């Protein structure tokens, strides 16, 4: 459980940058994979971020929730789209996904309060 997902996201960004300096090869490859996997294609970046969020919830990853709620909003996801993603994750992940779905909702609320969602021109909810 995280008290402040926007701050946690920033912390993870800094730690990832530090790890990238210490572990150049694998982190460079991961950054390239991330870019290629989330690039626009048959599925939009937004849909890909929502899929990643659903997976992050089902595998119970706090950092994944912070990253993918943030990145889904940045990619144009609405509050309702994120909520429906949480619903699908609960369907697929059962009780533990309910707990992490609550965490994803908290992250969404915190990013919304920080102004990130209000800067999304496609926002709804």
Automatic annotation (TrEMBL):
Domain Carboxymuconolactone decarboxylase-like, chain residue ranges per copy: 27-106
InterPro entries xrefs: AhpD-like, AhpD_core, CMD-like
MF-aspect GO terms: peroxiredoxin activity
Protein name: Alkyl hydroperoxide reductase AhpD
């Amino acid at each position: 459980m995280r008290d402040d997902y926007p701050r946690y996201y920033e912390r993870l960004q800094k730690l990832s940058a530090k790890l990238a300096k210490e572990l150049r090869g694998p982190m460079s490859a991961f950054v390239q994979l991330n870019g290629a996997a989330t690039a626009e294609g048959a599925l939009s970046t937004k849909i890909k971020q929502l899929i990643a969020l659903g997976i992050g919830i089902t595998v119970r990853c706090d950092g994944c929730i912070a990253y993918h709620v943030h990145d889904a909003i940045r990619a144009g996801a609405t509050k309702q789209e994120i909520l429906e993603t949480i619903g699908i994750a609960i369907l697929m992940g059962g009780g533990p996904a309910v707990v992490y779905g609550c965490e994803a909702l908290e992250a969404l609320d915190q990013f919304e309060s920080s102004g990130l969602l209000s800067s999304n021109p496609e926002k709804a909810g």
